[in-house]
Amino acid sequence: MAIQAGIIGYGLSGSVFHAPILRSVPDYEVHTVVSSDPDKVHKDLPNTVVVDSVDELLSTPDIDVVIITSPNATHYEYTRLAIEAGKHVVVEKPFTVTSVEADHLIDLAKQKGVLLTVYHNRRWDNDFLTVRNLLETGALGKLSIYQAQFSRYRPEVQSERWREQGNPGSGILYDLGSHLLDQALFLFGLPDTLWADLRTERKGSKTHDYFHLVLGYKTFRVILHSGSLVRQAGPKFELHGDKGSFLKYGTDPQEGQLKQGMHPGDAGWGEDQPDQYGELATELSGLAVQGEIETLPGRYQAFYQGLAEAIQKDGPLPVQPEEARNVIRMIEYALQSHQKGRLIKIT
After folding, report:
1. Pairwise CA distance, residues 163 & 325, whole Å
2. Residue 224: CA atoms inside 13 Å, Cβ hemisphere, count?
3. Which of 7, 50, 51, 257 would disulfide-bridge 38, Cβ 3.0–4.6 Å?
């Protein structure tokens, strides 16, 4: 029997990043959506029930898993209510606004015997999968620098968007920073130190729209960067080691493909064009080697496939909630570093 899913919110996240992926994985049916725009939902999901309150969705006994795609400041309360209702929960990133909230939800889920996970889908970006594979091969040798950036050119503040209104959990550090931090922590674990520079670049901005983070590990550094005034970006990933370097330009295509109506399984899903392949310069058997590395296909569907395994067969969660909690901890450390103007030791 298919896993019955309920979605809270049907904006960009619910309609682009969740519903199409759920529809592509045979283990799921989207049973109910909380939305103020039934026509929008029914255009994509004609047989789905649309309700206008979270309470109505949570009181539906047939729903197995609740997917929370509402604004960041609501994540804690809606997740708490869903857990109390005995539902498994997927929370869109960032998990919560504070790590205290995250810890409480983790404990509550254990008490209630339900699964709790966070949608850090960019672990399955095609470029990140390629970087991860490259690190596992040892082609770069002993790593010295890992640098990742996620920048945009948005010179005008879109004041109607909740992400730009200066409320708790808004701003680019929670939005794009949570992606970059999750990728780095997934690869390397917690750092020893963190230093942060946060700015408001644009006129009229009410929240941070620029960040530069340096995570200190024993033998290497991780640099994570994002800005809102980047018309022409440098490499998305730049890695250097004592044997070689890897540079990768461009961004994973899956978001764009979803917005165009494509789905996992379609021809070309998650694939780069050859002109987007990364470039590796390294040494093999004493010979200098330089060339393109074909990008591994992206696979956002792996998240929900993994969750189905966890629900139906007691498999591992695709993202452990403690991992997502650590991302929030790093955001808090970054805010502390910025406020105090100094390097912070991670405890």
Report:
1. 20
2. 25
3. 50
3-state secondary structure the chain: CCEEEEEECCCHHHHHHHHHHHHHCCCEEEEEEECCCHHHHHHHCCCCEEECCHHHHHCCCCCCEEEECCCHHHHHHHHHHHHHCCCEEEEECCCCCCHHHHHHHHHHHHHHCCCEEEECHHHHCHHHHHHHHHHHHCCCCCEEEEEEECCCECCCCCCCCHHHCCCCCCCHHHHCHHHHHHHHHHHHCCCCEEEEEEECCCCCCCCCCEEEEEEECCCCEEEEEECCECCCCCCCEEEEECCCEEEECCCCCHHHHHHCCCCCCCCCCCCCCHHHCEEEEEEECCEEEEEEECCCCCCCHHHHHHHHHHHHHCCCCCCCHHHHHHHHHHHHHHHHHHHHCCCEECC
pLDDT digits (tens, 9 = 90+) for 202-224: 888 878 889 999 999 999 999 99
As a whole number of angstroms, the distance between CA 330 and CA 346 comes to: 9
**pLDDT surpasses 80 at 163:** no
- Burial (CB count within 10 angstroms: exposed 0-12, middle 13-18, buried 19+), residue 197: middle
Q: 275 phi and psi, to 5 degrees? A: -75, -5
Asked if residue 93 lies in contact with residue 182, where contact means CB atoms within 8 angstroms, the answer is: yes
Q: Are 122 and 183 in contact (CB under 8 A)?
A: yes
Q: Answer yes or no: are the C-beta atoms of 319 and 280 closer than 8 Å.
A: no
pTM reported for the whole predicted model? 0.95
